[in-house]
UniProtKB/TrEMBL annotation:
Protein name: Ferredoxin-like protein
4Fe-4S ferredoxin-type domain mapped to chain residues: 22-53
Keyword Transit peptide: no
Keyword entries, A-Z: Electron transport, Iron, Iron-sulfur, Metal-binding, Nitrogen fixation, Transport
PROSITE patterns: 4FE4S_FER_1, 4FE4S_FER_2
Family per record: To ferredoxins from P.putida and C.tartarivorum, ferredoxin I from A.vinelandii, ferredoxin II from D.desulfuricans.
One Gene Ontology term of the molecular function aspect: iron ion binding
Protein species of origin: Desulfitobacterium hafniense (strain DSM 10664 / DCB-2)
Gene3D superfamilies named in the record: 3.30.70.20
Function, in words: Could be a 3Fe-4S cluster-containing protein.
Length: 93
């Protein structure tokens, strides 16, 4: 049996998106004072980006690892697990 790469495993995941109910929120005012912007590089799924002086996160693709919540030294990220039944469904551990 072929051993799956990490990318292969991640591609098997399924996401149940709770439309209009983001489980991650960002305080833009705090972000404007942030030099490090660690969130842009720390998210393993690359979901954070910066455009027009705004930090955005494509929360629907969240792996629920919690890295962004920990790495943001300014506590600008409000993070909760998605409501029951929503979020990522891992298929390969
Ligand atoms: S690390 Fe935190 S404060 Fe800095 S840009 Fe990212 S979310 Fe904003
Ligand atoms: S919890 Fe993990 S995957 Fe989700 S946005 Fe934060 S760093 Fe990215």
């Amino acid at each position: 049996m072929k051993k799956l790469s990490l990318a292969d495993k991640l591609s098997l995941n399924k996401f149940e998106v709770n439309e209009g109910e983001p489980h991650i929120r960002i305080d833009q005012q705090v972000c404007r004072t942030c030099r490090e912007k660690s969130c842009l590089t720390a998210c393993p799924a690359g979901l954070y980006s910066e455009q027009n002086d705004q930090i955005t996160v494509e929360w629907a693709g969240c792996l629920e690892c919690g890295t962004c919540r920990i790495i943001c030294g300014k506590k600008a990220i409000s993070w909760e697990y998605p409501q029951g039944g929503f979020g990522i469904i891992y298929r390969q551990g």
